Amino acid sequence: MNYVGTLPEKILGEAPHTVPTETAHDNSKEVKALEFHGAQDVRVLYHPKPIITHEKDCVVRITTTTVCGSDLHLYHRMIPELKKGYVLGHEGVGIVESVGPEVKNIKVGQRVVVSAIMTCGDCWYCKQELFSCCEATNNSGTMNTLYGHTSAGILGYSHLLGGYEGTQAEYVRVPYADNNVLPLPATISDEKALSLSDIACTSFHGTDLGEVSDKEGRNTVAIWGLGPVGLLAVEWAFVRGAKKVVAIDNVEARLEIARKLGAVALNFDKEDVYETLMKEFPVTKGPDVGIDCVGFRYNKSWLHAVQKKLNLETDSIDVVVEVIKSVRKGGVMVLIGDYVGYTNGFPIGAMMEKGLTTKGGQVHVQKYWKHILQLMLENKFDPSVVYTHTFNFDQMADVYAKFDAKDGGIIKPIVKTDFANAAVVA
Fold this sequence. Notes:
Elements: E1 25-36, E2 42-50, E3 58-65, H1 71-75, E4 92-99, E5 111-114, E6 117-118, H2 124-127, H3 141-147, E7 153-154, E8 171-174, H4 177-180, E9 181-183, H5 190-194, H6 199-209, E10 220-224, H7 228-239, E11 244-249, H8 252-261, E12 264-267, H9 273-280, E13 289-292, H10 302-309, H11 318-326, E14 332-335, H12 348-353, E15 357-360, H13 365-377, E16 387-392, H14 396-405, E17 412-416
Parallel strand pairs: 10-11, 10-13, 11-12, 13-14, 14-15, 16-17
Antiparallel strand pairs: 1-2, 3-4, 3-8, 3-17, 4-5, 5-9, 6-7
Helix pairs in contact: 6-7, 6-13, 7-8
């Protein structure tokens, strides 16, 4: 192979089931990309165009992308190994522009959605459909030291997660194209298809891990955090047969959407969460399943705020503590909000004595996305409820700032590149 680009030739053609995580570029061509330049400093700049780096790659011309709540961890520089000039983003829809010689099922010209999670499809974990645990797509020594293992790589999510350039760009290189892009029917919009990259699958993942259903003992649910994932988890809980869902947040616009979906809305600024849940579930004294869609960045107590400020911990667990306290005895706690490092004061006694089952982890996109796509085509699930604003790509830095500040009622933005000729809604 003799690809033109800046990537050292020596890392091409790696051992079986591994691909280069660093992307090669054609330096003679520049494209727009959203680059990280420091905490709360992201910029749309011209960036060398990514090209095929390995035989199993494809390059996708992005038409539609977005900003995820988990991107805000990067925006605030709270994820390790985030380098200046790195291209962010892990959700995208576009047109396949080029494919490597060993790509079998993806064709140039196809409209596709790109998975946030990079998988090889062939390691032991992928064969068990534990795709976010893939052994081949993340070579981070830091993660291996911190966790004892590495997870799968994630597009646009720092070198801790593989170092792949992200989808907040006009072009993105996708490794293992046969596994990590999904061809789309003409009858589904970019906006709906975009949710398959992450949020539709992550929210389904949370309810799947909790085994939410119409069965006694799994049909009552409380969901902490009503960002896009939390709101879609509310929708999925009802699709799966839940009898009652309580949705917890303090942003009234988000609580109102939860009400429209059929949930009991709980504003934690106005009501005590534990006491309210005890009243909502008087027989079992708590919901069967508690799903944390919040993650490590948010403090509700001064104790964890101070400990984080003093670098005594990396992750706040105020929400985790609330879930453990509130879920019924013998219930399930699901963690799909991001947690990264270490925390203090974990209530291990309560978790053990109450007999709770704890599940969590990054989403197995490839396990769910075909099923979810079919449900969308049958009008049995609609992710559109979370999309509130449309912007063009040149506005990306402003989108981050507004989304971070929860300004103007933004819940989930749609961002169109010049390839999509998007109309702009401020």
